[in-house]
Amino acid sequence: MNVNKTKDITLNYFTEPLTYELRPWLSPVPHTHQELEIVYVIRGSCVAYANQHKEVLRAGDLFLAYPNQVHYYEGAIWGEDAYVLLIFNASILYEMESQIAEHEPVRNSIHIGTDTPLAQNLQEIAQIKGVYSDAKARYSIGLMMVELLPMLKISPVVQEEDTTVVMILEYCRKHYRESLSLETLSKEFHLSRGYISQIFNRKIHMSFTHFVNSLRVHAAIKLLKNSDMKIVDITEEVGYTSLRSFNRAFMEIANTTPTEYRKLYRKK
């Protein structure tokens, strides 16, 4: 497989639905999609990553990931609505769409405060409900972005190596339930294990092993929330061969055990 012959892979990665909500947690799994993603911190703090950039977010900070930027979050609060999450297609921004497609932020976060009209607007958008709620959200997001985008310093997208990164992440996303290793990726992409390892450390800011564990734990979280599967069965479903390894990885990433997480979620 020649990774240099598919430069448009980012355009076919995956699509997220329109999202506007308060969130008690943020995804610790590196991911990318065609939409813009905004996280606003209401309380607490977390660390956000976008491509090579690492940014500490505190109350009043806003983080904006552009389309196809690899991004994820660490240290987010679990169990309370501490974040506003917006995910939306750039097409709702009309003439701003082409500029967004060809650029990315130099720095992905800005401080907008906690009592400002912009901060209040974000929290109101996250709580839109009722008839025509999606239409109302798109309209409100569009108005907000007219104010927000001029605050960001942007630069042209450099795509060559980022294409390889996205292809590797996509492969892992599809095969994390299997026995996945650097050797597997080396054979699939005809790249050395050392080079692939460097990609994870330099572009994703985590080891390959931690990334795979993140994928598996994130999948397990969905099963813990949305099913009555036994934890031992979830362990096998997401790709672990032992309960001990699963519990250790879950604790490392979610800062709690699978059993405690399920109890916490069902209390809400």
List keywords for this structure.
single chain, 268 residues, alpha+beta, Arc Repressor Mutant, subunit A, five-stranded antiparallel sheet, 10 helices, 10 strands, globular, disordered N terminus
Computed over alpha carbons, the radius of gyration is: 19 Å
Q: Quote the CATH topology of the largest domain.
A: Jelly Rolls
Number of domains: 2
Secondary-structure-based class equals alpha+beta
The side-by-side strand order for the widest beta sheet comes to: 1-7-2-5-9
> What is the rounded distance between the termini?
47 Å
Number of helices: 10
Low-confidence stretches: 1-14
Most strands sheet:
5 strands, antiparallel
- Strand-residue proportion: 15-25%
Estimate the helix proportion, in percent.
40-55%
Which term fits the overall shape? globular
Superfamily at the CATH H level of the largest domain?
Regulatory protein AraC
**CATH-scheme architecture of the largest domain:** Sandwich
Mean pLDDT: 87
The tally of strands reads 10
Order of helices and strands: EEEEEEEHEEHHEHHHHHHH
